UniProtKB/TrEMBL annotation:
A GO molecular-function annotation: site-specific DNA-methyltransferase (adenine-specific) activity
Any Pfam family the entry gives: MT-A70
GO biological process entries: methylation
Family: Belongs to the MT-A70-like family.
Protein's recorded name: N(6)-adenine-specific DNA methyltransferase METTL4
UniProt cross-references to InterPro entries, sorted A to Z: DNA_methylase_N6_adenine_CS, MT-A70-like, SAM-dependent_MTases_sf
PROSITE patterns per UniProt: MT_A70, N6_MTASE
Highest taxon above the source species: Eukaryota
Annotated keywords: Methyltransferase, Transferase
UniProt KW Electron transport keyword: no
GO cellular component, one term: nucleus
Amino acid sequence: MSVVLVNTQGCVLDARSLIDKGYLQCIRVRENNQKSHVNCRFKGQCFQILKSHLDAIASVAADGGNIETLQKTDKPTKKRKRKHSELNQGEIDSQAFHKKIRSVVLEGTKSLVDSARSLGYLNGTSTTDTLKEPLPSQECSLAALCEMAKELPLVDDEQQEECAQPLVAADGSTSHVDLFSRVTENRADWATVVTLMGEEYVIPPHTAFLLSDFTKIQPLVHYGRRFDLIVMDPPWENKSVKRSRRYSCLPSSQLKRLPIPLLASPNCLVVTWVTNRPSHLRFVRDELYPHWGVEVVAEWLWIKVTTSGEFVFPVDSHHKKPYEVLVLGRFRPSSDNETSSSEASEVPVEDQRLIVSVPSALHSQKPSLSEVLKPYLGAEAKCLELFARSLQPGWTSWGNEVLKFQHTSYFTLTPTDDGAGVLEDEAAEDCTDNPIVTQRLSSSAESVD
């Protein structure tokens, strides 16, 4: 059950179940076109957040463990001391925002967690096998490959017209795939495990993706689709991230370069994940959305809890809060004559709704919003995720780490029990007979090796 419950305050999500829904049918494709059915599940230990941050520290201290290792504090070794009462403007703004939403967070979360517990969810139970296994720690080099792709020759005009390519060719190969300059589509009704750039990835059904950064986003525009939902989780500038070097940050002003007006359909719902830094929230509301022609319609909160329903951080913590903000808006193209009629038929988005879930232990892996946002979209809505680090069934995704959490190291793959050994070539029916052949990807892969 991916959506555990919905009430007037919001909803409770089972994030792992949301992921696994896309892999109910999964076929592994080998280089020699050998195909076999496999069971595919995202690794459960990624969502086994059993204790809040402070409880975990207390537990380690009681066992004589190294608290400093667990805390992983982001404070630099040398920092200017200041008076306890001295607050900068950002901290003052943070306190004001927290005070404004505190009662909504406390009351809404209690209502949702209590209801979830009555259904047998968020009761603190966990499977012992997942607890014994370490978290996946796959080294992600996708962003580096995107940097290398900038040196590749540009696609000529004739090839540019063929802006999409099949994931698997008719002969079962993936050597034709140019991940950096064309949108890649898995056109099958099932998830597919394939080898790309020497690594195995699990690709959900009816998924399209482009692996690139800002400088190579044009293929997404040339793809020719207008989307009814655009979700983005920008790599906001953050001192902690800069020090840890987990990923490259992007100055807020650069976000205005995203071609949202060329990607959004009239009345498109635009959703942006925002950190708890007040300046980022103001930027999205007052500068970014108006620049794109997007009208702010609501602000939601993602509440992060443990498997027993406790906040992962104390709600009044000065270091980190147990919530993040989502800013929702509607794209209002000024020159579109159909805007007024589409506005009249749109479903109103309620303000201050809560999304409660156990967060992933993997950095920057957000819960899927596909089920939560369905009531606010029309039938057959086309959905796009920007700055994506994973794929979703039926969605188009773009980012310089778009395949990060699709690597097989994050999944448990086992042969099916029905003896589904080597399959026939029926999986090739959804592939084109004349795949686009290019040597550019193989050349870049060789240079990496």
